[in-house]
Amino acid sequence: MTSTYPTRRPTDASHLDDREPELPRELLNLPWVDVHNHAHTLSWGDRERYALSGCRAMVMVASGYHWTPYKPVRPEDVRFLWDDAINRRAAIERNHFFETGLGLGIHTGVRVEDPDELLDAMDEYCGLDEVVAVGETGVTPSQHASAWGVDEQRAVVGAQMELADAHGLPVILHTPNRSGESGRPYRPGMGTPGYEKNPGPGREPVIDAENPALEAVRIDVEAMRDAGLDEERVVASHADPNNLAYLMEHTDCYLSFTVGHSWLIGVTAADVADAIDEYGPDRIMVDTDCANVLRTDPFALKRAILELWRYGIDEDAIRKVVLENPREVFDLAGSAPVPG
Ligand SMILES: [Zn+2]
What residue spans carry the region label Disordered (predicted)? Predict the structure, then answer.
């Protein structure tokens, strides 16, 4: 190639050729929806990071034992989590402009005493305009502080699915990941640095199966069918290579890949790209699951958008998984201008 540059000798600019890809400038401004995070537990600065990187809407999930100080957990402890999110939601929107919907649920990561009392109360909460989803919930193989038998867990998950069905709400399923084994363990009692969870109160697993994480998802799917819930109203969050084929081939659920703590669960934009290649973008979403108890990254979803394109996914498919699918299921970001 003949250089027309006035540089003293040829530079890289003289060696560029026609294979340079056409860059997807529109992705820089593509609005996106985070369908599962705990942003109300983050700092103001973290929530600003969502706004600065183009978040158009999010589902803030007020469910999880991490934030209830008392163990075992009582119904009023979970109610506090729901009420706290309801209390702060409008101020968060006003500060950062993105739309916020709430996910309210009973997480099974720790046993809740008298869950029926909570389920009764939940019925009324589900009628609120700001509640856009039930969850996160789903059978978990082992609990913190107080074990919860599989049958009881399944009943609580199923009852929440029935409530979701009655209120026309989607369900965010917490599907357990197979934890990525690192080569060398930490000292006993250290837990996992980056995840504020005391290792001491961890209980023995209640699911005895070769693949407990997948078995938990199978039980959730049974509960979903028993509840008569439309499968397209269920979003299995924490999709991973362990549950992808089962959920795609044996259900009509959506799958959401959690990319906000890849260091912990090993799921990255590459997994999302592989799933889109294999199954198409129609039932795929991406979420961050950012929370204050975890080393998480509010920029993760924006990074994943750019990374998906680098991995060969086209702009239309990216827009589908980060904006259009969430909009369809959660009825958020309705008036977002869609570039392209
Ligand atoms: Zn979560």
Answer: 1-20, 172-199
pTM for this entry? 0.94
Q: How far is the CA of 240 from the centre of ligand 1 (A)?
A: 15
Distance 258 CA to ligand 1 centre (A): 9
Could you confirm whether domain 27-176+200-330 is CATH 1.10.443.10?
no
- pLDDT above 60: residue 1: no
Question: Beta strand pairing status for 131-137 and 171-174?
Answer: parallel
What is the 136 CA–ligand 1 centroid distance (Å)? 7
Reported as a single tens digit per residue, the pLDDT across 129-170 is 999 999 999 999 988 888 899 999 999 999 999 999 999 999
All residues at 6 or more sequence positions from 71 whose CB lies less than 8 Å from its CB, including other chains: 65, 110, 144, 145, 146, 201
Phi (first) and psi of residue 107, to 5 degrees: -80, 145
- Cα of 120 vs centre of ligand 1, distance in Å, is 23
